Each structure stands twice: as structure tokens, then as C-alpha cells.
Amino acid sequence: MEESTRRSLEELSAEVASNPNSTAFVELAAAYRARGDLERAMRLCLRGLQRHPTHVEAHFELGRIYEARGERELALDEWGVVLQLAPEHLNTRLTLVRLYLDEGRQSDATAELERAETIAPGDPRLNEFRGLLDSGLAPPEAEGESGNGRGHVFESLGEDHPGTLGILLVDAEGEIIESHMPAENGDVQAALGTDLIEARAEAERVASYLQLGELKGMVVESKSARLTVSPVGRDVVIVATRTDLPAGQAALVVQRAWDLAESYLSNLNR
Amino acid sequence: MDTGYGDLLADVMKQPGVRGALVVAVRDGLVVDGRVHVGVRGDAAAALAAALFRRARQATSNGEGRIRFVEVDAEQGRIMMAGPEAVALLAVLETRANPGQVRLAVRRAADELAAMEGAK
């Protein structure tokens, strides 16, 4: 497998080297991208586009390289060029659907998918995306007061219970799955999630040592905030409430957050 | 040796369902003083609980202020830990304990602990 990739690269490289006007640079750039050599892939694509400025596939490939480099805006620019040159470029339309789904922009994803469906109604990939959209598995809308591209799942809780400072759904590795924590930035949330996952592990150790059975939850309280950590399977939901919020209301927020998290995770795993 | 913590530990221990109450050095998890029922290994529980307390303190160090209380709720019981800086009070509860009452007792004891530490 490795050898065939290398041979293919050699062949493509030879062709591009022997014929500067060849459009094989697009395939070669894709091969470099697949190997993770993004710098070389980008240079090759940019150089090829100087000779072939209206090469649709080259612009599409350059967009993919930019995306792999984490340069989302540049990627969108390139795909915009593709759609100006070839409005019916299905791969670009589907790439945009995927991008919008990843970002939780469901209405944009739907609009783009509808355009793709008019271009190639029988394409099997359309069904996959349609299934994702219809089942609601896609992440929620990026826009919102959480300001970090998440927050839709728990948004109503914050509105219904003003004493709620924020809610995080964190996986077993401490990665944030969902959050609604308007007052905090992403780094603080990430640190909080990671530290509390580790605190949960410590809590499980204590409970196990003292033969207290399975962990049901944990509360960490400071002067201004109460953090309630509740396991949802292997993940945890962390609810931050003001300490002056009455205990009954705080318990209600925690229970509702747990229900929402459980339902959201069930949908994800379905 | 009288550590001076006897009364506050007794106040927590008299709550029904409390199996142990210990004053723990947060930094190293050593037991400063404690009362435990038979079967509760206070030294190990203190070490583990102190590690949890430190971790929880780290988790809140980014913005929630210094922690003053940690509670672990498990199927067969609970632990509660509260305290000022260097020392904290740890309570081990059975399921029959009334968590609200013990929570109050633990907080009260932690306040006394803070006052005693401040006076030193």
C-alpha cells in the first residue's frame, strides 16, 4: 500500500516535472495532502493555478488543503471561486454541507443540500447528509450567546433559570461535547472540563475505597458558584449555579440538564 | 495529644449516619485528628479525599474562586469535605444519614476550623 502510494507520487511528480502545463498537479497535490504534507501540497496547487487560473478542480483541491491547515476562511474563498466557475460542482456543494453540519449551521446546510439535490438527485451521498439533517444528529447552530459554536442543547435552561451560570457536557477525556456558558471563554471551559473529569476520577477512587458503591454525582462549591458534576454514562454534565440559588431550584436545573444531556447523547449514539 | 479539634469533630460525629469525621491536611492528605467507626480506614480515606479536594480546587482556580465545599454522592453513602486553606474537615456518611443536616454540621465545623486556623 505504502509502495503503491509512493510509486503513484513518483509518477505524478515525473509528469508535473516533465510538463509544466500538465494538470496532474491537482492529483499530486491531493496525494501530498493525503500524506499530510500540506505545505508542499499548497505550494504545488498555487503554482499550478498560476498557469491554470480557472481550473475548477485545482481551486477545489486548494480549498481542501486550506481546510486541512485549519484556514477555514481561505478554504471558503477557494470553494466560492469553484462555485463561480462551476455552480453545479457537486463535491463543493457537499463539502459545504459537511462544513455547515460540522459548524452546527443546519439551515445553511439544508439550503446547500437542496441545491446539491437539484444537481445530482440520485447521488447516494445526498441520502447520508439528508439522514443526518433529518435525525437532528448535526451539532446545533453556531450562532448564539454562548459565543463558542455550542450551547443550543442547554440554552433554554439558562433562560428559564437565571441563577444558572453555565452548563458543560464533557466526555471521558475531558473534551467538551456541548456547552452553554456565556460568561466564560473556551480555554476556561476546557480547563474546567478537564480538571473536573479528573476530579470525578478522584471521587470514584474515594467512593470505591470507602465501599460507597457507584458514583452518583459530585458538588464543588466556592463562595460564588456551585458546580454539580453528574455522570451520564461515561460522560459528565457539569452545571454551574450561583450559590444563592435555592437548593430546590438548583436541583431542578441539574436534573433538567441531565435529562437534556442524556437525550442528546442517546440521539448521537442511535 | 489534644489537637483542639475534638469538639468540632464530636459535633459532626453525633449526626446520625456519620461513620467518620477527620481533620485533614489538604496538601499531603495526612490526618491531623479524627474519629472513625470500626471499618473506616481514616488515613487512606483522608489521603484520597485530600487529592480530590486539591483537584477540585484546581478546577475552580480559573474563575470560580477558592472552593469551600466538596461533596461526593455515591450509591452506598457520601463524603463531604469543607475547609479553609491548609486543613479541611472530612465526613463519611452512610445512606441513612440526612445529607442536609450533616452538610450544615460540616459547614459549621469548617467555619470553626477556619477561625481556629486564623487564630494560630
Q: Care to describe what's here?
A:
Chain A is 60% helix and 13% strand. With 270 residues, chain A is of the alpha+beta class. In chain A, a hairpin with a 5-residue loop joins strand 1 and strand 2. Mean pLDDT of chain A is 79; it is low at 1-6 and 138-151. By secondary structure, chain B is an alpha+beta fold. Chain B has one domain: 2-Layer Sandwich (Beta-Lactamase), CATH 3.30.450.30. Chain B has helices at 6-13, 42-60, 99-119, and strands spanning 18-25, 31-36, 67-74, 77-82, 87-94. In chain B, helix 1 (6-13) packs antiparallel against helix 3. Chain B is globular, with a radius of gyration of 13 Å. Chain A binds chain B through residues 184, 188, 191-192, 195-196, 198-199, 202-203, 205-207, 209-225, 227, 240, and chain B through 40-41, 44-45, 48-49, 51-52, 55-56, 58-60, 62-79, 92. Chain A: Keywords: TPR repeat. Chain A: TPR repeats lie at residues 22-55, 56-89. Chain A: This is Tetratricopeptide repeat protein. Chain A: Residues 159-240 form the Roadblock/LAMTOR2 domain.
Order of helices and strands of chain B: HEEHEEEH
Instruction: State the CATH topology of chain B.
Output: Beta-Lactamase
Assembly status: heterodimer
The number of helical segments of chain B is 3
In brief:
Chain B: It comes from Candidatus Kutchimonas denitrificans. The complex is a heterodimer of chains A (270) and B (120). With 270 residues, chain A is an alpha+beta fold.
Looking at this protein, list some descriptive labels.
heterodimer, A: 270 residues, alpha+beta, Serine Threonine Protein Phosphatase 5, Tetratricopeptide repeat, 2 domains, five-stranded antiparallel β-sheet, 11 helices, elongated, disordered N terminus, B: alpha+beta, Roadblock/LAMTOR2_dom (chain B), Roadblock/LAMTOR2 domain-containing protein (chain B), Roadblock/LAMTOR2_dom (chain A)
